[in-house]
Amino acid sequence: MSAARALAAAPPPVVEGEFPFTQSDFSRIAALLYEQAGITLSDSKSTLVYSRLAKRVRTLGLPSFAAYCDLVSQPEEADERGRMLNALTTNLTRFYREPHHFDHLREQVLEPIAAKVRAGGRLRIWSAGCSSGQEPYSIALTILSVIPEAAELDVKVLATDIDSNMIAQGQAGLYSDELVEPIPAALRTRWLERDPGDRTRWRMSAAARTLVAFKELNLMKPWPIKGRFQAIFCRNVVIYFDEPTQEKIWSRFQPLLEADGRLYIGHSERLSGAGAEYVSDGLTTYRPAVQRIAS
Ligand SMILES: C[S@@+](CC[C@H](N)C(=O)[O-])C[C@H]1O[C@@H](n2cnc3c(N)ncnc32)[C@H](O)[C@@H]1O
After folding, report:
1. Where are the domains of the chain?
2. What's the whole-model pTM score?
3. Pocket around ligand 1: residues whose beta carbon is below 6 Å from it?
4. What share of the chain is helix, strand, coil (3-state, %, to 5)?
5. Tens digit of pLDDT for each residue in 10-63?
6. Under CATH, to which class is 3-88 assigned?
7. Are 192 and 247 in contact (CB under 8 A)?
8. 100-288: what fold?
């Protein structure tokens, strides 16, 4: 085939750029993302996919997105699939996002249980889809505001995310002036310190870091979790999933909650089909309707 005919026969690019990127490439990436992470991508996201993955195509020295799709589809390329997932997840977050949830946590969960925890009782909270750590640290700071000695007690915040870069950032616990702004001033003064290595940044105190355990975890896979939680935060995560996947996640959380445990979800999220398993306990806040046995 002549070069001119080959060009005429080539499928049109879905995004014009340095590397050929066709509708078929986009569909292959979208299918892989759905299969691996449950995340759905509408066709309107093709420019975003191009801009987030072009760097990988360039770094790997590949000629096109088709070649990149071939590569990430190979079973032995789990590391590159991980890099692709990291690049395609949306990690937007901030400290004390939807602050009413932290007021609710303090008043309805932590204050009533504080005496029991001080006497040796267990307190577990899960931030599922924790991004770069602002959500689990907001939970930790709320705990410390009620129980300042929490780091020496049986208290843990489990912070999980599919994105290994986010887990590393959370573990580092370093944030700019701008990022720490939403933290109430009294808590910032007490539980954050200037990073000795770079005084323009803040570091979460040892107590806050001791409370939070960061782990990579894909919500689509089995959850190696023992014991129940007094609260699960899963906010602004399932909005990227389709409805059956969302319902499955809500149903899997339910038996992991204590009878008076709470599920906090994002402001634009709904329990829909799983609604019967929970009762409302405030704005986008739920408790289990009946206790089920965790499997
Ligand atoms: C928009 S952030 C929300 C962060 C935080 N929960 C908040 O509300 O500020 C969504 C997070 O969910 C994570 N995520 C997406 N799909 C996931 C999956 N299948 N398993 C675990 N985490 C996932 C992303 O990596 C991202 O960090």
Report:
1. 3-88, 100-288
2. 0.94
3. 37-39, 89-93, 97, 129, 131, 135, 161-163, 166, 218-220, 235-237, 240, 266
4. 50, 20, 30
5. 788 888 889 999 999 999 999 999 999 999 999 999 999 999 999 999 999 999
6. mainly alpha
7. no
8. Rossmann fold (3.40.50)
